Amino acid sequence: MSTAVALDHLGVAARDLAPMAAAYERLGFALSPIAQQSGRRRPDLPVEPWGSGNRCAFLKHGYIELIAILDPALYDNTLNAFLARYRGMHILALAIEDPEANLARMRAAGIDIPGIAWLERPVEAGGPIAKFARLPFPDPPEGRVQLIRHLTPELVWNPKWMDHANKAVALEEAILSAREPAETAARLSRLSGLPVEPDPAGGFLLRLPGAAGAAGPFAPAMETRVRVLAEAALPTVLPGVTAPASPFMAGMVIRTEDGTAAARGVLAGIPTVEAPQGIMVPPAYAAGAAVVFA
After folding, report:
1. Burial grade of 22 (CB within 10 A; 0-12, 13-18, 19 or more)
2. Domains of the chain by range and CATH?
């Protein structure tokens, strides 16, 4: 298939990994070990170590990436530019099944992309190397917006890192805002190869049809969504959240297996907010990203 099929992951960025990881552990997520990244800055360059690294909350469908700068002396993987805009979510990755077919489609659509970008990292210190094929949209104002195919999914979706106290099972929705939502929606439509439709809250909605195994080896075929809202509509979906910049990756909806019962217990003591889709952790308690448990 030459289109995106699912929401693969969202990335929350910070300069320091430890405080961000502690915040998400407080929300009830089990996190993978620290992994420093490496890759090619361009398809024609060799693999080199990067200064960025992450810890992740792997779900049955998709995952949340917590990414930060581990070594300031190395290539920063554009994190400093992201963090100069705001603290929070800066990465939106959509799952694909055929990188070559999607590359051809993107080029036919006039997207100036040099080729498939390769990324790799150890799953843990001294462990096996996970590998990924990426098709990033070149320099979009939204942040890092890309298509991704996991070449070694069994290495990263390890059940020992997937027992979450909040009973989270699926990354279901990404929520963005923009002063000109039509422009962001058009870019996402070109990237994904899928049409957008009006969002009931005001803005646009991209529906990803789903494919079993596309967003992790345990992933069911389920619809996931990306919403691009007008800035005025953002607080109606994420109460109290306002955009510090435009475009803005504002938050996410995480599906739980028990209707948020466990999450509500875990989140006791955090000043959560009732949102239309569930219980929301404000950005101040989730490293700058609103997290809604549904």
Report:
1. exposed
2. 6-161 (3.10.180.10), 168-293 (3.10.180.10)
At 4 the pLDDT is 98
Contact 31, 131 (CB under 8 A): no
**Is the whole-model pTM more than 0.85?**
yes
Collapsed DSSP state (helix, strand, coil) of residue 86 = coil
- Report the phi/psi class of residue 143: left, alpha or beta, with left for phi > 0 and alpha for psi in -120 to 50: left
Rg (CA), the chain: 18
| C-alpha 259 chain-centroid distance | 22
Q: Which residues contact 45 (CB under 8 A, 6 or more apart)?
A: none
- Compute φ and ψ for 181, nearest 5 degrees: -60, -25
Q: 65-69, 90-94, 127-131, 205-209: which has the minimum mean pLDDT? A: 127-131
pLDDT at 124 over 80: no
